[in-house]
Amino acid sequence: MPEITVVTRECCELVDITRRIAALVPPDLGSGLCSVHSLHTTAALTVNENADPDVQHDLLAKLDALVPQHESYYRHAEGNSAAHLKSSLMGFSVTVPVRNGRLHLGTWQGIYLCEFDGPRTRRVVVTFVEAAT
Q1: Is the pTM of this model over 0.85?
Q2: Chain segment 14-39, per-residue pLDDT in tens
Q3: Averaged pLDDT for residues 93-100
Q4: DSSP readout, the chain?
Q5: Across the strands, what pairs with 122?
């Protein structure tokens, strides 16, 4: 099962991993599904716009407003409860259709690793399932 490593540089950031995932599509896979899964509890995955970087900024800003970094009721000893909450809200995996051997994303869509507790080195597992004929 293919796996990629993503090195993040900021505490919170979105890293476009679309090309790296696309490069893993097996050449003999015509149609099917690509599942992308984060192996971490403080990093998530999402599909979103990859043309305007303001979308990434706005998404992170809204998540920060919804889930503040420090709250008096957080109990987690490591102090990264906000990262765990944001990851759970965003989700740890995405599924993308594969068509004609390529990821079938919309014109402005990209696959992002969402870092909420960086900088870190993250692992992402990718699996493919061929469509039944």
Answers
A1: yes
A2: 999 999 999 999 989 989 999 999 99
A3: 97
A4: --EEEEE--SSSEEEE-HHHHHTTS-TT--SEEEEEEE--SSEEEEEEE-S-HHHHHHHHHHHHHHS-S--TT---TTS-HHHHHHHHHH-SEEEEEEETTEE---TTEEEEEEESS-S-EEEEEEEEEEPP-
A5: 6
